Amino acid sequence: MTISKFRPAKIFLWSIAALAGLIALCVALLLTFDWNRAKPWLNQRVSEATGRPFAIRGDLSLTWQASQTDQDSWRRWVPWPRLSAKDIVLDNPAWAKTGPHTAEIGQLTFSLNPLPLLAHRIVVPSLELDSPIVALERKPDGDNNWTFASSGPSAWQMELQKLVLAKGTVRLLDPISKVDIKADIDSLPAITTEGYGIGWKVAGTFNKTPVSGDGKAGAVLSLQNSSTPFPLQANVRIGKTSIGVKGTLTKPSDLAALDLRLKLSGASMSNLYPLTGIVLPATPPFSTEGRLIGKLNSAGGDWTYDRFSGRVGSSDLSGTLEFIAQKPRSLLKGTLLSNQLRLEDLAPLIGADSNASKANRGDGAAQPANKVLPVEQFDTSRWGSIDADVKFTGRKIIRGKELPIQDLVADLHLKDSVLSLTPLNFGVAGGNLISTIKLDGNNKQIKAEMKISARHLKIKQLFPTFESAQASLGEVNGDASLSAVGNSVATLLGASNGELKTVINQGTISKFLLEAAGLNIGNVVISKLFGDKQVKLNCLASDFAVNNGVMQTRTFVMDTEDAVINVQGQINLAQETLALQIKPESKGMRIFSLRSPLHVTGSFKNPDVGVDKGILALKAGGAIALGILAPVAAVIPLINITPAQENDCAALLAQQKQKPVAPPPGKTSRPKK
């Protein structure tokens, strides 16, 4: 009875002892096993999984370390394995041009949390890479060397928590993105107070443009912990574009927080498109600095360039821009402000800058010497990549005394390749120039529609450099409606259709100003000697019909106390030529007179004014509308002695009340009966 009573107890004790012995034996084997014997099996398994030859050519060892979990439970007592492998190589595909290996690693060390393996999760708390040489390459057809053969979806999930870099080299060769860049990484002598542990240098090409740069970063990159910021500092130059960043990156697996000071400078903002994918206009040389805040999402991320400031050409620029990645197109929105805007800094927007400026910003389309209207083509191929809602305000416009523009307000909208400025308004000469512009870039050629209204432009402010014009009280009002198809300012105006109307009434004008512009030399001398008598301007009314780029006068009459002047003819915007006849009808005496009408001919670049066979140089003229360089034949002729002509302005002013109209883009206007 006694023996049978203790037999189960002995069996239990022996079982416990056997299990303990087995565990001890396993531990002993793990601690003493030469893991180099497992390399052939491991190399074969990895080669089969990747579809590429893989080899651990150096020592393979396994050690154990205490659990690094913060949980206060039995899990703290489960040790973690730590694997170290030296001299690792992974071969490249046969097509690769970067060398025989995708990766060469001097030493790879990682720890493993064993408990998540029970839930098909591979949790790697830390991965350390020493002296890695990595070559990433993509073919023109899209195949790459970092995507491996797969037998289908895996039930296992991998989570890498920390990445530690010491020294190494990374090269990226991508003909699709036109990138060939090599980065050399090395440990800093000591970790700085800002947390920098490694330094790096980069060199290569992007879009056939030289790339160079350097920077610093943290030695330990926390990929999952959202409370551990990763310090980052970089200065990179790509051709004429410089990029400087300094700040922190948190949880890069989903960019929980990107907070950087970003400095940008370059020859033109349009050159940023290959880098950012954001459509920006052509500009003079620029530089900006602001705070870049970013966060990734399923669509790509939200990025804000917050409260940046800088200069574009000689103009200041500040504001906030937000880029929202979304489908079907990303959205750029924000507000921009310039306190002092030089009008010449807007010239690259329409290709009206100098050839030297074009060359500096990388545009090869030089303006022909004999052309006035800009021939540089708009690049609409990028318009479909993004939508935009941006408001721009220019508080003070600077361009000498000859063009008195006080302010500018523009609301830019880009949606589905249709760009509209609604409105584009200028404060001009005490009045307003109000316009709406629509450019449809869905086809090879832009379909353009434009409406402009000039209201209450003061004559004395239109001609601030003429001292005697300051007593004038007249105002200018006008309307224009045009449509066209083309790819540049020159081709659009050269194919335009519509109407233009202008009227000046209820005011006075300086005789000195009129006769200086009209080349009446005798009266200019008399006016300078004996003062500037004010001349009552009954009215000036002009009405042009525009068909296929040819401006035909319907009416162009100027009536003053001294004369009535009629203008007839054409202005050809396509050929940039003038063919106008100016017929004066005198209301008074002149020191001398010419009995023939004036003929205005020649090109926009070299206009001529002729009286019979005599040729006079035309040196007067101006343009107010931005980007619309339609010439103004502001010529008042030498007037004969003839009976006074009845004032016809009442009827003309009545006609001017009818708003101008334009046909759809590509259609010609119907002549009025």
Automatic annotation (TrEMBL):
GO terms for cellular component: plasma membrane. The chain crosses the membrane at residues 12-33. GO terms for biological process: regulation of protein targeting to membrane. Residues 174-554 form the AsmA domain. Keywords: Membrane, Transmembrane, Transmembrane helix. Pfam families: AsmA. This is Exported protein. It comes from Collimonas arenae.
